């Protein structure tokens, strides 16, 4: 009987695995088409400096609207894009669209905001990443100080020497560098000193419980203090409540992003948001020098 059951289980699992593989293949196929047919859209989420109460930047977040399946979340398709190499054309599309959009806002007369673009692991190791970024900046005419790349600890740590080289190349061009989801990856804090990082983004999982969990409060407080002593900017992600905002501000975290301020929105809605907050726009600190 045990044998029967075992076999049943085996069949069950293998069917499940099969289905996952099919899902993945189907998703890969759909993704290829989506790239050809440009079924993607970039959304933008504002980032605020709550010390000076100014809008300092936006994060670009990809959205895939499939004609039949509807909205597919990046959490689902970015990993598939990574595994299949499709992240290359997709990542290039994101970078170009984000840079062109931010440049367009400048051309329309808005004070400049910075745009954060997420870079995944395989994308970061692309041999021609720097070249691609150079080309996109030249094509769109965006000043590099308005582009911030959001990188994650896990892949930065994989090969510290080549990481350093890539980051230095980017930094020389004046591109801003941020560590996304800070605190969740494989953290050797030592790298913060050696890599030319400008900003860390406190992961939203810590921010979520910051007013209810002593541990998360302690972690967030420690991250803010450490960023301060290393002279790194620090931004809290996933701020949803006034209580979280108050806690963060009291601990010295100036910059924030989250549903409390606004959800990610399409470019045209973001234009209206910029219009509404026109007198709250300012040139990012590091860009100031170049603009004066
Ligand atoms: P991330 O870069 O850490 O982005 C933050 C995620 O948190 C976004 O989810 C955003 O919509 C969401 N978020 C923002 N504020 C709040 C809040 O107050 N509460 C909660 N619960 N969530 C909030 P999204 O857009 O689904 O993106 C998920 C992840 O997918 C991103 O995490 C990023 O790692 C990746 N991703 C998104 N767009 C791109 C892209 O263009 N390229 C690459 N390589 N990855 C991307
Ligand atoms: Mg991000
Ligand atoms: Mg994040
Ligand atoms: Mg992330």
Automatic annotation (TrEMBL):
<feature type="domain" description="EAL">
    <location>
        <begin position="24"/>
        <end position="278"/>
    </location>
</feature>
<protein>
    <submittedName>
        <fullName>PAS domain S-box-containing protein/diguanylate cyclase (GGDEF)-like protein</fullName>
    </submittedName>
</protein>
């Amino acid at each position: 009987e045990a044998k029967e059951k075992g076999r049943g289980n085996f069949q069950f699992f293998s069917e499940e695995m099969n289905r996952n593989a099919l899902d993945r293949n189907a998703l890969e196929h759909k993704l290829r088409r989506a790239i050809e047919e440009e079924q993607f859209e970039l959304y933008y989420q504002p980032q605020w400096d709550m010390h000076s109460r100014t809008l300092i930047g936006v994060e670009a977040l990809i959205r895939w609207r499939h004609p039949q399946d509807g909205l597919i979340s990046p959490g689902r398709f970015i990993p598939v894009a990574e595994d299949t190499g499709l992240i290359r054309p997709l990542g290039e599309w994101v970078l170009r669209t984000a840079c062109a959009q931010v440049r367009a806002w400048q051309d329309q007369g808005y004070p400049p905001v910075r745009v954060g673009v997420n870079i995944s692991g395989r994308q970061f190791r692309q041999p021609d990443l720097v070249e691609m970024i150079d080309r996109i900046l030249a094509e769109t005419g965006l000043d590099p100080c308005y582009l911030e790349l959001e990188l994650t600890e896990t892949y930065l740590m994989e090969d510290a020497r080549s990481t350093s080289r890539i980051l230095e190349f980017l930094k020389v061009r004046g591109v801003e560098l941020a560590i996304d989801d800070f605190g969740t990856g494989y953290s050797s804090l030592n790298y913060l000193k050696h890599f030319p990082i400008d900003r860390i983004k406190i992961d939203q999982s810590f921010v979520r419980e910051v007013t209810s969990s002593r541990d998360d409060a302690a972690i967030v407080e420690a991250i803010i203090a450490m960023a301060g002593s290393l002279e790194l900017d620090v931004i809290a992600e996933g701020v949803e409540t006034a209580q979280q905002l108050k806690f963060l501000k009291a601990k010295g975290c100036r910059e924030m992003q989250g549903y409390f301020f606004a959800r990610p929105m399409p470019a045209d809605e973001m234009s209206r948001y910029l219009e509404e907050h026109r007198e709250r726009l300012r040139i990012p600190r590091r860009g100031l020098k170049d603009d004066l």
